[in-house]
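Quick check before the chapter quiz. The format below is the same one you will see on the exam, so make sure you can read both the input and the output lines.
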Amino acid sequence: MTSLQAFAALVLIAAALSATMTGAWLIWRQTGNSGWVDTVWTFGLGLTGAVSALVSIDGGALQPRQIIVAVFAAVWAARLGLHIATRTTKISDDPRYADLIKGWGKDAPRQMFSLLQKQALVSIPLAFAMFLAAHHPVAGFDLRDALAILIMAIAVAGEGLADWQLQAFKSNPANKGGINDIGLWRFSRHPNYFFETLGWLAYPILAVDLTGGNPWGFAALAAPACMYWLLVYVSGIPPLEEHMLRTRGEKFRAYQRRTNAFFPGPVRNAS
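Here is the expected output.
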């Protein structure tokens, strides 16, 4: 892969993600439900990654690794996107975005558009990692492919299980106002975020070449780092836990004291 090919991929990926989030903004303006933003982002990122994986950059035949990465992108986007879409049909707004929109007042449309374009910007390393993993010049199927498939399978299954457990808890009227601390949620306050980040490790495993044969591959390490930063410090845990503290109060504080925020671990004494 030449530097020119990598740069061209970056530009096209950036343009696709910007267009995706512009579409998300238009849907929000039409529906008033910001929950659709994450739905559009998920499907848009998955489509961008899959297309970038399958496109030929040198006119050669389609390689197995390109297919593997395209399947990764499609499976990830289908599972998460359908989950978020289903959840969105049951709510009038996403509380994380709703709080921001309320604070912005009349300036909300402009501020929301700016925020979504920033989301497109920070999503570039994710789609670029898919491109780099798919176009790592290696022949056939090797151990790294098998390891990446295993990691992605664990990540998708783990996140799916966590989402299912949370939905099952919320669907029980007896749990209204309570804290879900069963199943995977007993060992992490955000097991879905943990498994989401884990899945992005599959791409640098495919892209990085420790022999120096694929220098651009090291850029794929930005994908799991970016996802961890977003979920733990920006758009994931902080606004969600702030909302939970407002609505659940001491129940959630006790949950915070006894349960790790991100990495699964043993339950601590809540005293």
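If your answer matched, good. The chain has one domain: 3-258.
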